[in-house]
Structure formats: structure tokens, C-alpha cells
Amino acid sequence: MTSERQADNAIRFFESRSYNYDDTWHADFAKRFLSYLPIQPGQQVLDLACGTGLLSFLEAEAVGPTGHVIGIDVTPGMLTVAAYKKQKASGKCTNLDFLRGDVLHLEETEALKGKTFNIITVASALVLFPDPNAAIEHWAGFLKPGGVITLDSTHPRNLVSGMVLERTARRLELPMPYNREWSQSESSLKDVLESAGLQVEKVLTVENQAGYGRRYYPVEEWDDFFVENVIVKDVARTFANNEIRRKAQGVFKEEWEKLAVDGKVEEVDAVFLAVARKPADGSRYIPTGLSKEVVFTGGCRCSSIQYTSTAPPSDITFCHCRACQQVSGSGFLPFIDVPTDSLKFTSSSTLKTLKLSESADRTFCTGCGAPITMKYHFQEEVTGLTMGSVDLDSLTVAQPRVKQHIFLKERAPWVVLPGDDAERLEAAPFAHLLVPKSS
Ligand SMILES: C[S@@+](CC[C@H](N)C(=O)[O-])C[C@H]1O[C@@H](n2cnc3c(N)ncnc32)[C@H](O)[C@@H]1O
Ligand SMILES: [Zn+2]
Ligand SMILES: [Zn+2]
């Protein structure tokens, strides 16, 4: 039995789009993409997921007769269009070849055996692959020492209803033919390249990819997008039956509403683009300086929220205030503190801010309800993390100890305090800084 590959899905999705693909904004984007490439005459280029060759033809022109370009794609229709264009160029593109192959399994393409390239390009395709890191690692093996890879990934609000659809599918544990969730910023693209041992030379946001800039949709229009994405455009048949569609409807609405600001959902026509290089000695690039070691990691119950901290945790404070009781559904909430700038959310799509007082903001996970952080406005440089979200196995330093119990004046009478030697405070050391509750 063979399990279904991402490539099979891609063929279903792209075959019918092949024949008028060149009439879309992709043709213009290929030109812009080329302008970021440090491409030289005489170079060997590999254009992965080349489609109809929009970029490959431009690259072939740039490397000239002494260079060579190979375009690889898996969708027959795309390659038919590419071959037709090459034929029409009647002998002008002798330095360009198109091959059919799965770019996640380049070892299967005979013609690539033993070959390496000065330049690898992946235009408008990285987000189609389930594991961007593994894909880039695989491609990096085909780069010459000092060779360059250039690729792009979507802005989180690019085709915003597609993003909402992905979140819906994820929550319902349904497979999706793309994975955009990781691509939140220029630095997420930088991170995946660096994790694959490549040195990022340039990362930027390319605005106006398809020419519409920014658009705003009224939050009530969620059902139009639901119908378009789930009923009309569901080529991968992710939402295959009525029961799944019914469930998806509520989740889609919720995810759409989460993105709304002042009743509007923003769509941003932008992508992140990066140019990264394999070190000249062929080794893996190890980021230095800025990137500090992770001291511990943590996250929520459903794993949609994950964070790392490059600073050790402070000792633990048990907060017995009424708000902590209510949001935790327990007798108190234990926190540790870290410097805010040492905390990085590596996954945060479900992180929502909760304002229960004028003095502080909390966050929690909308997927599983877990409380995650608390930050006082008088001390923004410190973030409290709920101790329950800390992944104890990840700690590279000693486990924090219980330091103090605060707001004991609000303690639940049924809570029996442990016989620890922690400090016990009726309010908190910073109580005088809190904005009084208006009653
Ligand atoms: C949006 S198009 C981009 C085409 C081209 N790079 C461009 O910029 O015009 C994405 C392409 O990825 C191809 N593709 C998706 N998964 C693939 C895989 N595993 N192996 C090869 N090609 C793949 C599709 O067939 C499609 O042609
Ligand atoms: Zn969660
Ligand atoms: Zn509290």
C-alpha cells in the first residue's frame, strides 16, 4: 500500500489551472522574483515547482548559453504548457530543460543524480509543502558550496479566507493541501532557512503580489467565504460530507471572527521573500550572536501555542486572587516570570488577549482554554508565564522553587496552603501600583 503524497494532491489542484496559469499575476511576480536573484551568466540553476516555467525562462535568459536551467514540476498540464512555450521559442532555449518529478523526492529524478546547482528557486510553492524545514533541508543538498536558494512564503493575511480555512481544518483534524500557519513574518521564513543550515542574506516583504494591496471584508461576510472555500473550491475534498461541512461552518465563523478588528477582516496582498546561501566550505551555517540558547519551552494543551525562553524562569509565585481562581477554575494560579524580550512564541495562532483589569493583560489559548501569560502595564519588560504551561522536561536549568503566595486576602477558604517556606502576602509587593477596581 502506498500512502498518498503531497504531490498527488498538488496535481489535482493545479492540473485544471495549467492552461490559463500564465494569464494570472504569477507572470508579473516571476519578473519581480528574478530581480532579487544574484544570478550570473554561466550558472547552473534548478527551478523547483516551476509550473509553466514563468521563472525558468527568465532564468535561462539570465544565465545565457554557457549556463543551464532545469525546471521541475509534477503537474503534467503545467509541463505541457512549459514544453509548448519552449517549442515556440524555436531553438532559442537550448539551455533550458523541463523534467517531471516530485520536488520532495528529488533523489528519484535520474537526471539530477550527482548534480549540484549555483541557484535554486522555489516561487509561490513553499507553502504547499507540509514540512517546510524538511523540504529546504532536502533542497539544500542540491546546492553547490556558496550556492543560493531563493523562495517566498505567504503573509498571514494573504488570501485571508484560505488561512481561516486552514485553521478550521486543523481544529477539525482534517488534512489540508497547504501549510501556511508557520509563515507569520519575515523572521519565520528566516528561521526555517537557518534551521536548514543556510545563511540568510536578505529577507523582505514583497507588497502587492497580485496587485490588490489591502482589502477589508465586513465580519458578517464570513458565510460567503465559507461557501466559496468549503463548498465550491474544495478540490482536495477535505470537507467531503455534510456532517464535516456542518461542523466546519461553526469553526470557520469563529476563526474568521477572531481576525476581525472593528468589524472588518483585513486581507494583505504580500509575501515574504528570502535569499539564503550555503556556506562556501559546504558546511551548515550556524547562526551566531543574536540567537541565544533556548533555556526552556512551553505551550498549551492543544499545542497551538508554543513558546521558547532564552532566559531562565524566576521562582514561582502562587496568585490566590479571585481572577486567577476564576480563569484557572482552580484555587490559585502559579506563575514564573521571564524578561519579555527573552520570550518568543513559535506558534501562536490561537493566542488571545484577555483584559480583566486596567492593570494587566492576560493571554489564553482559544483552542483549549489554557491560560498562558500575564503582563502588568507598569512592568511591560517582564512577562508572567503560567507554570502549568512550562514544559518541565525542556528546562536546561534547575526547576524553579515556590517563592511566594500572594493575594491571600482573596484565598479560597477550601484551599489548604502547602507547608512550604514561601513568603505569604495578603496582597502583592506591587499592590500599590495596581489600578483600583471600579465597582
Ligand atoms: C503556484 S504554482 C507556482 C509555479 C511557478 N513556480 C511560478 O512561480 O509560476 C505551484 C506549482 O507547484 C507544483 N508542485 C506542487 N507540489 C509539487 C511537488 N511535490 N513536486 C513538484 N511540483 C510540485 C505545482 O504543480 C504547481 O505547478
Ligand atoms: Zn491550546
Ligand atoms: Zn491573580
3D architecture notes:
There is one protein chain. Helices cover 25% and strands 26% of the residues. It is built from 10 helices and 20 strands. Strands 15-16-17-18-13-12-19-20 form an 8-stranded mixed sheet. A 7-stranded mixed sheet has the order 3-2-1-4-5-9-6, sandwiched between helices. α6 packs across α9. The longest helix is centred in the middle third of the chain and has 17 residues, at 242-258. The model has no long low-confidence stretch (mean pLDDT 92). One zinc ion (ZN) binds at residues 319, 321, 323-324, 333, 407. InterPro entries: CENP-V/GFA, Methyltranfer_dom, Mss4-like_sf, SAM-dependent_MTases_sf.
Keyphrases for this structure?
439 residues; alpha/beta; Rossmann fold; glutathione-dependent formaldehyde- activating enzyme (gfa); 7-stranded mixed β-sheet; 10 helices; binds zinc ion
Would you give the CATH topology of the largest domain?
Answer: Rossmann fold
- By DSSP (H or I, 4+ residues per run), the number of helices equals 10
CATH class of the largest domain: Alpha Beta
Average the pLDDT over all residues and give the rounded result: 92
- In CATH, the architecture of the largest domain is 3-Layer(aba) Sandwich
- Main sheet attributes: strand count, strand direction, barrel closure: 8 strands, mixed
What small molecules accompany the polymer chains?
Answer: S-adenosylmethionine, zinc ion
Ends: how far apart? 66 Å
CATH superfamily of the largest domain: Vaccinia Virus protein VP39
How much strand?
A: 25-35%
Radius of gyration: 26 Å
Number of strands: 20
Give the overall shape, derived from the CA principal axes: elongated
Report the structural category. Answer: alpha/beta
Protein name: S-adenosyl-L-methionine-dependent methyltransferase
Family: Belongs to the Gfa family.
Domain CENP-V/GFA: 296-415
Organism: Trematosphaeria pertusa
